[in-house]
Specification:
With 218 residues, the chain is α/β, with parallel strands linked by helices. The chain is built from nine helices and five strands, in the order ααααβαβαβαβαβα.
């Protein structure tokens, strides 16, 4: 039986209602009705979280709504993604990104939102978490071969760790294999230039746009 045409739209609306429980329920209902899980993600969850991001940039949503929207999106992905195994329609990822808050920094909200938005835009994201040692960024670069490394630092005391990662990548012959994106309250365009990173971006949506630009230029 064909799925009702509004099943995916309900999933999008659930994300905009910022309700993880509702999104999870709607994702399960979409699967029950026969909606392809990839379509449910790409035509339901993704437009929903992108609209959340647009409203945040427009000043219609505040940070708390952005965080809640990200959690709602993740709740839907948790239901739908396991059903994608072997799905021939699944697209090639936009690119591969390694993310992490540098050593000494345990803040994760900005990083988590960026991870969600990158995922929504088709990136394969490997989130190393918070308080990530320099060596772990280097090892992830060596083993995962990412296109981009994103490092967050919210405190001025931890920002120098971003430079240490870049220096260690150089020492290990890996710097030229990856683009470095930095962000966080302790960073700036001047800091990017000083430490030799490739990109700085103060907003998650802006970081996604720059990541897509990088991949288009490859």
């Amino acid at each position: 039986m064909a799925a009702p045409p509004n099943a995916v739209e309900r999933l999008k609306d659930a994300v905009l209602k910022l309700d993880p429980s509702l999104v999870g329920s709607e994702a399960k209902e979409a699967l029950r009705l026969g909606v392809d899980p990839l379509d449910a993600i790409e035509k339901g969850l993704v437009p929903g979280i992108r609209e959340v991001g647009r409203r945040f940039e427009a000043g219609e949503f505040f940070l708390i709504e952005l965080v809640m929207g990200a959690e709602a999106f993740k709740a839907g992905v948790a239901v739908l993604e396991p059903q994608l195994s072997g799905n021939s329609k699944r697209k090639k990822p936009s690119g591969k990104v390694v993310l992490g808050s540098v050593a000494g920094d345990i803040h994760s909200i900005g990083k988590d939102i960026l991870s969600t938005l990158l995922t929504a835009n088709g990136f394969e994201v490997h989130d190393l978490g918070v308080d990530v040692p320099v060596e772990k960024f280097v090892e992830a670069t060596r083993t995962l071969n990412p296109d981009i490394i994103g490092m967050s630092a919210l405190m001025t005391t931890t920002a120098p760790k971003q430079y240490e990662v870049i220096r260690s990548l150089q020492t290990n012959g890996l710097r030229d294999k990856v683009k470095i994106m930095i962000g966080g309250a302790a960073t700036s365009e001047a800091w990017r230039a000083e430490i030799g990173a490739d990109l700085w971006e103060p907003t998650a949506n802006g970081a996604v746009r720059k990541a897509l630009q990088i991949m288009r230029a490859e």
